[in-house]
Design brief:
Blueprint lengths: L1 H20 L8 H21 L10 H20 L17
Helix pairs in contact: 1-2, 1-3, 2-3
Length: 97
């Protein structure tokens, strides 16, 4: 039972790293969101699978911490994707003066 747990831990960590790799880019690629969503679900599965073996109960907090960080990064990324006008002049309509 130890091999599937370590494999799920590794996949969750790999997708988390792939999702965080392009955080500084300005194009706001959807692949980062897809990788972070996969990391979210794999870390959730890793957290629940950790309780199936008594040896991995103490390590269950690693995927839980990655799950919390992934949630915060996903919310931040979604917040950054909201379109916002660049200046105050873009928001003023012609008929207001």
């Amino acid at each position: 039972m130890t091999a599937p747990i370590i494999f799920i831990y590794g996949l969750g960590l790999a997708f988390f790293i792939l999702g965080c790799e392009g955080m500084g880019e300005t194009d706001r690629s959807m692949t980062n969101i897809i990788y972070l969503a996969l990391a979210f679900f794999l870390n959730m599965i890793g957290y629940y699978v950790s309780y199936s073996s008594a040896d991995y109960v103490n390590l269950a907090y690693i995927p839980l911490a990655l799950l919390a960080i992934t949630t915060i990064i996903l919310i931040y990324t979604a917040w950054q994707m909201i379109p916002v006008s660049q200046s105050w002049d873009d928001q003023i309509e012609e008929g207001e003066f």
